[in-house]
Amino acid sequence: MSEFQIEIESAALADQLGHADAPRGISIRANNIVLTKLLREGSNHDDDFVVVPLTSLAFWLLDHWWRLRSESIPPGGVTPEWREAHELTSVGGGFAKPSCRLSSR
How far apart are the C-alpha atoms of 85 and 77, rounded to whole Å? Predict the structure, then answer.
């Protein structure tokens, strides 16, 4: 496994809904740690996938890829602008996202 991996669930749900931009399950991992693990309401087991619209995540990654790749946490602490570029909760789309920060060392 690579150090950072994004896995997308099968397109079966998107096919059922009839459009390619339907929300799909994604799993984000760093080394062996699943960053998107959650416990669904009413369930006794955890799930490695969070359901989000893929276009929102893709646009966020494209907008911030350079900052994600090269910026670490600022010495003076995080700013709202830094959080927008490094935290998954800032990805648009109206879906719940894990509280996860991505930055380089």
Answer: 14
For residue 53, give both structure tokens. Answer: 């619209």
Q: Tell me: the pLDDT tens digits for 5-36? A: 888 887 665 556 556 667 788 888 888 888 88
Radius of gyration over every alpha carbon of the chain, rounded to an integer in angstroms: 15
Round to whole Å and give the CA distance between 47 and 67.
Answer: 29
Q: Exposed (0-12), middle (13-18) or buried (19+): which is 103, by Cβ within 10 Å?
A: middle
Q: Which amino acid is at 79?
A: T
What does the block give as tokens for 50? 């969070």
| Cβ–Cβ under 8 Å, residues 27 and 7 | yes
